[in-house]
Structure formats: structure tokens, C-alpha cells
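User: Batch of two.

Assistant: Item 1 of 2:
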Amino acid sequence: MEDPDGFFGEDVAATYDEDSADMFAPEAVGPAVDFLADLAGGGRALEFGVGTGRVALPLARRGVPVHGVDLSRAMVERLRAKPGGDAVGVTIGDFATTRVDGAFALAYLVYNTINNLTSQDAQLDCFRNAAAHLEPGGCFVVEVGVPELRRLPPGQTVVPFRTGAGGWAYDVYDCATQSLSSNYVEVTGGRGSFRSIPFRYVWPSELDLMARIAGMRLVGRWRSWTREPFTHESTGHVSVWRRTDR
């Protein structure tokens, strides 16, 4: 990917909030902010993949000092332009390896962003990076979906998740490599466009092992930010690990 902003350049950033409007609704953001503010306990919070500030801004308004890391300058420009945007410090860089000064009570990564790291090594580096930023007893939180492999019959690799007259979207899985791509076809004025974003899907147990390697232990796992039990039928999870090695 030649764009220095990665897959979230100006063309994506310009409509990101609008395209993800359901995730910006109070009923989606409020429980996440409540959960994270409670864990921060008045300490500093570090968001990996801060983007346009969907979570960081309301968390900062709750009195939690928030710093973000993001590769995309285009996304961060949108954050800066919003009311209160200057209250959130941001470091431009890869959140798997970029270091920020100081220690934090909380590090977090929401909305499937761990999957933007497309190798197991990079995902493990992210856990190590989170642990390196945490103060003693600090917590790392990840919100991510459970891979939807149960929806794949034999011989099929494609799972559609949006269809309509103006276009459609679908995921493509490779179970041998745990690679995943989300693909978008848009039709406007009789002309079509195509965009594909690569990911690496990851299992809850795999995340737990990464956490242990990084010196953290699982505190709890829930289906959502409102702490419903995580079960066999859950399509996603919010997991919390605590740094325990110092």
C-alpha cells in the first residue's frame, strides 16, 4: 500500500463517520465509554487506532486523559477538527510498534482494529507494545469479532454482509492463513468502484496466548461493552487483560 495513510487515506477519511454512522450512535458509543472510563479509574488512557475520535473524544469529555496512536493523518485531521479535538494528543505511527512517553492505566483497541495488523507477529507486537505502556496493574482492552467460519459451507470462501441497489460488500476468508479481506463494490451514476482492505482474523484463545507472552493475564471476556456473557453463539467479544509481571 503506497499511501502513507495506509488503507484509511483521504478518500476513506472523508466519509468515514457517515459510512459508520451506526457505530457513532450514542447507544453504541456510550457503553464503550462507560466501560473504559471505569477501567481507567482516573488514570491515563492510550487508544491504538484512534481514527476520527469516535471513542477518544467522549472518553476525554468524561475526564479521562486520552492519547491516541494512528497511522492515518487524514483520519486524525478529522479528529482535530471536531469540538474538543485538541484535548486528545495523537502520535502518528504504527500502533504495533510506536511508543508514547509516560505510563497509562489503560490501553485499548476497538471495533476490530486488531485485525488491521495482517500478521500474527504484528498482532503479538501490539500486545507487547500495549504492555510496555501500562503502569503496574494496568489493563489492555480489545473489542473484536469472532471469525464467522461457521457461515462457510465446504468449498465457499465468501461471506456477503451488505447488498443493495447501490452496491454490495463481502468478506473473503482464507482458513489456511487466517487472512481475511473486506471488499466493497459501489455503483454511482452507472459507474462502479471497488475497494479491498486486508485483515487477519484472530481467535479469543490466540489473543489470550499473545497476552501471556506479553506479560498479561485475562481478567474477563464479555459479548459486548454491557458485559453480557460470552457464549458459543457470540459474534464478537470485549476482552480485558491485566499486566501482571511487575
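Item 2 of 2:
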Amino acid sequence: MTFIHRKRNTRHGRRALVAGSVGNLIEWYEFGVYGYFATIIAARFFTPEGGSEAEALVKTYASFALAFFLRPVGAALFGRLGDRVGRRPVLVLVITLMTVATTLIGALPTLAQVGALAPWLLTFLRALQGLSAGGEFGGAVSVMTEFAPPGRRGLYGSLQSFTVALGLLAGAGAAASLATVLTEEQLGSWGWRLPFLLTLPLGLGALWLRLRLDETPAFVAAAARERPPPREVVRAVVLGAGRIMGWAAAGYTFLVVLPSYLQSSLGASFQQGLVATVLANLGFAVTIVPAGLLSDRLGRRAVMLTGAVLVVVLAVPLLNLLQAPGVSNTVKGVAVFGAGAVVGLMAGPGPAMLSEMFPTRVRYTGLGLAYALSNAVFSGCAGLIITETIERTGSVDIPAYYAAVACAVSVPALLTLSGRRVGVAVAVADTAEEAEEKAG
């Protein structure tokens, strides 16, 4: 019976990994596509006749930021539902909302077609995306880590971050392919719509997987338990957001904002910006899973601190290297790849670290809010802050300072992590397996 039970748990765990991570992949594919096509979207939706390109790009990033600022609202709304009625039904709801909103963006009329209504329609759909994305992370990580075998939460949680890399790479690949196949006029006219429309079949596949997902045993077992005091949950949310703020800022700076930065500030072509982004995301993808696995052995603190400190030390030299005219493209490519790899050291253990900070009864809400708040401030605002600050100061080193300062502030919060076991006052054993692991 024990063998059969373990085999069933393994099957359910694998199904949870796929169903939990696929929504995250779609979410970051879409956010990546929006970032990669930021200059085109700015021209089609935010540039009235006689308007400046820089002003339009700032408005595009403002719409980008709005979706992130609605993430905490979505995390609170869907997280509360997920902690009360279950992970599965809420994850089905959020993937449906994300798919519909993203697909409709690909069908929107532009400023030239419907005038001032166009940016408002785009902003509304971005708001829906932000709400659904806010409910995605907390539920997916809860499912994946609650199905994880003892001692493997870091590995299981890292696969959630790995799908971030896959989503961004898929978005960059779609953008690069279209930029190669289509002319610049075709890309700006209708080609940019295709990656958004592709979300429809992807979302339907994700919906089918989630409809087949079982509820987690941890949620079922914890249904009768008392919730921790709200004050302790809020304290954990703030601390969790502080621990991942460096990951959020450096990740979006190096993995998403980079193409538009290279084009607008360093004079690179659209294709060159995408190549740099692909290399950064490849480096990111390479280190995520090993970092999660390593954190199961060495602890979350050691691995995440290493990533944060490396960003503080290397961010400015990296950007100076990209700006140097005499440096070969190969060296610059290696540097960009390395930047992504360093971010992966924080992203790999991050989901498991957040999951371990909250008991089952508030896990969906707690870890979702911590992640959403940090990303709202330090990811969603990255493009807006960097673009506006460069415009005002003329300094092209702003992205490096932004990432380095955020990681430096994140270091003290990471130091509060224990060496191997992770948690704060609200962390309790949610299953018999967790209790045995903590006792061991």
C-alpha cells in the first residue's frame, strides 16, 4: 500500500508541476511580448500626430506598470478564494481570465482606427491581465510545493521560475522570428498582433490541464485549522517582498527592459536588442533549476544572497561593457548571458522560500501578495522609472544603478533567513511529511 500511495503521489506531483507552471509560462510569455514590442505598441496606441516617441514609450510602460500594480489586488482577491475554496478552481478561473484578456489585445483597434478609445481599451485589458496574474503565482506555487516530496520544495518551486524564463524566451523567439520574416512595415502594421493571438490555443491547453488537477492534500488536511493572526501574516508578507525585491528589479531590468533600453539609449537595432534578451534569458534558464536544487541542500539564504551580492558588484561594470564601442559582440553576449545567470540564483529558490513562510490556510494569499507587491513596485515600474530617469538625467547607467540598489536593499532581508530551514513566526508544519522533515 505504501508503494502504491507513493506512486500515486508522484503522479499527482508531476501533474501539479505541469498544470501549475503552464499558466506562469503563458503569463510571462505575454508580459515579455508586451515588453519586446513596447516601441511598436507605443507608436500604435500612444503616439498622436505630432507626439514624441519618448513620451509614447513612457505611456506604454505606464500601462505596463498598471498591470503590475493590480497584481496585489488580484493576489488578495484570488488568494482569499484559493485559501477558502481550494487551489484548483481558482487556478482555472485565473488562466481563463488571462487567456481572454491577452487574446483580445491582439485584436484591438489602434489609435489611428478608433482614436482615444484605443489606449483606454488596451489599458483595460492590461488591468484584467494584472488581476489574473496576481492570482496565478500564489496558487501555482502553492500547488507545486504542496505536492513536492519532503526536501524537494526548492526543486519543485524552481520549476515555476523556470517557466518565467521559458515564457520570456518564447516571447523573444516569437518577436525575433516575426522581425526576421516580416518587413518593418508589416511588423508594425499587423505582425505584432500574432504573438498575442497565439495565447488562445496555449491558454486552452493550460485550461484542460488544470481541469484535470487534483486538490492538494495539504489544503484538504488544513481545512479545519485556525488561521494565523493577521498581524503576523502582514509582517511575513512585507518581509517576503523585501527578500525578493532584488530578484524582481534585476530580473525585469536584464530580462525584459533590456531590448527597449538598447534601442532607445544605445542606438541598437530591434534585432540586436532581441538577441541580447535571448542570451540573458538563456543564462537565466540555465541556473534556475540548479539553484533551486542547491537550496534544498545548502539552504535558501546562501544561494539567494550570492545572487543578490553579485548583482550589486557586477551591474555597473556589465552595463559599461555593453556601452564600450571597442568590445566584441561575443564578449558582450557572454556578459549578458552572465547577467541572466546571476538573476537565476535568486529566482530558483525564491518560490520555495516564499511558500515556506506561510502555513497552508493563508499560503495562497500570503506568498501571492509578497510576490505581487514586490513585482508591482520593482518590476512593473522598472521600464517607466528607467526610461523617465534616463530622459531627465541623460545618464545611460540608470538600469545598472536600479538593479544594484534594489539588490543591496534586499540583502538585509535575506540575512534574516535561517541557514537551512526557512520561515517566520507564522510558519508551521502543514503535513505529517513537513513535521518529520523539520524534526529531522
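The radius of gyration is 21 Å.
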